[in-house]
Amino acid sequence: MDEYGPILLMLVTLIVLARLASGVFSRFGVPGLIGEIVIGIVIANLAIGDWSFLGMLGVEMGGAPSQGYEIVKLFAELGVIFLLFAVGLETKVKDLLSVGKAALLVATLGVLVPLMAGIALILAYDGNMNHALFLGAALVATSVGITARVIKDMKLIDTKEAKIIIGAAVIDDVLGMMVLAIVVGMTASGGVSVSHIAMISAEALVFVVAVLAAALWVVPRLYRYFEERDKNRIAGGGRPHPGVNKLVLAIAVCLGFSFFADMIGLAAIIGAFLGGMLLAEYAWEWKLDEKIESITTLFISFFFLNVGMQVDLGSLTSASALILAAVVILLAVATKYVGCNMGARLGDRSLSKGSRNIIGFGMVPRGEVGIIIAAIGLASGVMTSELYGVVILMAVVTTIIAPPLLARAFRKEYPPEYSLTQDDLI
Amino acid sequence: MDEYGPILLMLVTLIVLARLASGVFSRFGVPGLIGEIVIGIVIANLAIGDWSFLGMLGVEMGGAPSQGYEIVKLFAELGVIFLLFAVGLETKVKDLLSVGKAALLVATLGVLVPLMAGIALILAYDGNMNHALFLGAALVATSVGITARVIKDMKLIDTKEAKIIIGAAVIDDVLGMMVLAIVVGMTASGGVSVSHIAMISAEALVFVVAVLAAALWVVPRLYRYFEERDKNRIAGGGRPHPGVNKLVLAIAVCLGFSFFADMIGLAAIIGAFLGGMLLAEYAWEWKLDEKIESITTLFISFFFLNVGMQVDLGSLTSASALILAAVVILLAVATKYVGCNMGARLGDRSLSKGSRNIIGFGMVPRGEVGIIIAAIGLASGVMTSELYGVVILMAVVTTIIAPPLLARAFRKEYPPEYSLTQDDLI
């Protein structure tokens, strides 16, 4: 009677497969989200002759945009938005500012080292400056979604290392946006509009600073004002104001800030994180963490599935592409790790080698941000499809290898009682 | 950087507008969902010259399917699916079976009286038997989503009247499906395939009975088996099995049962309700009610918005269509109320007049089910577009007028301490 049968089948099949894979992987001590990415690769590439598994589910990825895949991508986006919102809810501004210097240096060196190395590599490979600039920009991006899930699953958001990583990811995104603007300017017109870049950078900085200030001074005052008003009403014999549903308020802040960040050129997830931080002081009182977690649970598997689904195994057949991909992946891991490690050392002398290890690995995943940059390059005709395939693979592989390295580094610093509880992972 | 900016803007705008309208209406003592429907009507019809509010949000409803409206409809569907799943979670099979006879009679008379009256009316109006059959079928449907929200908001799921309404809605859907099959058979081939109707009716009955049986006998045994196994492991010095995330299990059951119900021709929401009932015994222990409520909160406003958005005020200009619509609406309310009231009287002599009032009004909303039937008729060329518009209006108006009548009837039987808490409504 209804047009939603096929969509419901697709949703339930993908959720069940993702969670089963997550359960199997975490049984073997590997973070469950890797299982979700791997199942994404498998189902996107599982085809026998004319038959394909995704086609059976109504998810056609190539060619015309299909409704099924549009829904998967939307749910993936909402999943990572609500995940970062939840991380924001557990991050108080004061704590974040206390690691400000370290986060700033981690982000800056974590941007400069991969950018330079990426440009140098591609200049040596094919001598094309435009290719070099885009690959460099794609290496800059850090996708904090994966790291955030590992940190949340291990219940380690309160650690100093987690706060540095998250703070650095916000700054990294602002820097990455500036790099992308510069690269687009240089490749499109052959020149850079300094005023344009100054504009968008200023917008992003004002947004971030305004949210921090609002979280520190405006939101607590609003909260006290409404509390006082209700107290006075009750004292006057009246009923307290019914008020708004706190979950609806949180959803509106989460989606609204995500939209706004996207509009001014930041990643939507950075807006979601900042929106969460705005409400962090009241998250516990309003039970927002539990409630947002329920919503995240519905969506988040689609994010990791979709990371895997980006991998087109069929496109990776030429030997030179495979070798280039291997080199780019090594470079992506090494330069981010080294840059962030150095930044952490300069920024906070008290950090142990183990802590710098955590921070280095935590910044490695490129995830969807690297893919978006490569897609911009491909769409504007600057990237070759071979380089695009290499960037996709780099983004997916860094996303897959970072969580086990990060989890192990965390376990070394925060042993037994902090260890991964399997129950949280499936 | 991202393609989701416009979608995020659309989602947050619609959620905020819906909740504001809900808050304003409930301040004046009208159930908040009416505000959400009204705001749906307003924004779908708000256009000045070339400018339209929905167009600004990227929601184009007519002509080519737009991505924006597809997402609104999908969220609407998921909202009502999770709402009915939540109602199922609060409905134990034993309680439902205890009102079985009354529910059966309420459903049967609530189907027969509107069907006969609808056929008679249209035969008198234009003498076309095909038109008459489809309008009759559209009058049969009961959409329990609206009633369910009123009952949930008033925290009255535990009342006998609520159980009769919900049980009757399940039976009504099975009967309605049989009526639709008969009507489609009669209008398409001029004859009815008895074996075809017997087949789909048998499928639906087997499904419903199988779920009831599974809830009574299979699920408790599975639960005890896993509990025993964990006990034995702990007694043997091992760790309990990590188990699955209960919310993921619930989501899978909810979407899976919705799909299955849809596949065999029932409404997806009936499957969601039955799936919820399967887990009702463990909903409290697993905190499923709170968790599903968070998910429902994200989606449900889209359901009521979309009910309103179906109304095209521009199509209702001819006087004869308006008069016909008024007559059909009166008939829809009166016949459902009278049929269900009679059924309740015959089915359970102990029901007071007030209780029968509640049951009669609770079955009145036609909601999306009536619209789906009309759409089938329109697509198969049997309905005229005028009659289609009349059915849409009937579905929306019955959905709008039932909640206040139902809330008032409930308040008469269950006064003060049960009264609507505004906090739940916005």
Description of the structure:
2 copies of one chain form a homodimer. With 426 residues, the first copy, chain A, is mainly alpha-helical. The first copy, chain A, has helices at residues 5-27, 32-45, 53-56, 67-89, 93-98, 100-125, 129-140, 144-153, 160-189, 194-235, 246-263, 268-278, 288-309, 319-347, 353-362, 367-379, 385-413, 422-425; strands at residues 47-48, 51-52. In chain A, strands 1-2 form a two-stranded antiparallel sheet. In chain A, α4 packs across α8, α6 (100-125) packs across α9 (160-189) and α9 packs across α15 (353-362). Chain A starts with a helix and ends with a helix. The interface between A and B is large, with 55 and 56 residues.
Structural topology:
The structure is a homodimer of 426-residue chains.
Chain A: H1 5-27, H2 32-45, E1 47-48, E2 51-52, H3 53-56, H4 67-89, H5 93-98, H6 100-125, H7 129-140, H8 144-153, H9 160-189, H10 194-235, H11 246-263, H12 268-278, H13 288-309, H14 319-347, H15 353-362, H16 367-379, H17 385-413, H18 422-425
Antiparallel strand pairs in A: 1-2
Helix pairs in contact in A: 1-2, 1-13, 2-13, 4-8, 4-12, 4-13, 6-7, 6-9, 6-14, 7-9, 7-16, 8-17, 9-10, 9-15, 10-12, 11-12, 14-15, 14-17, 15-17, 16-17
Note the main attributes of this structure.
homodimer; mainly alpha
Low-pLDDT ranges of chain A: 418-426
Q: What best-fitting shape of chain A do the alpha-carbon axes yield?
A: globular
Strand line-up across the major sheet of chain A: 1-2
Distance between the termini of chain A: 34 Å
Radius of gyration of chain A: 22 Å
Largest sheet of chain A: 2 strands, antiparallel
Whole-number average pLDDT of chain A?
A: 85
Q: What's the count of strands of chain A?
A: 2
Question: Greatest contact pair?
Answer: A-B, 55 and 56 residues
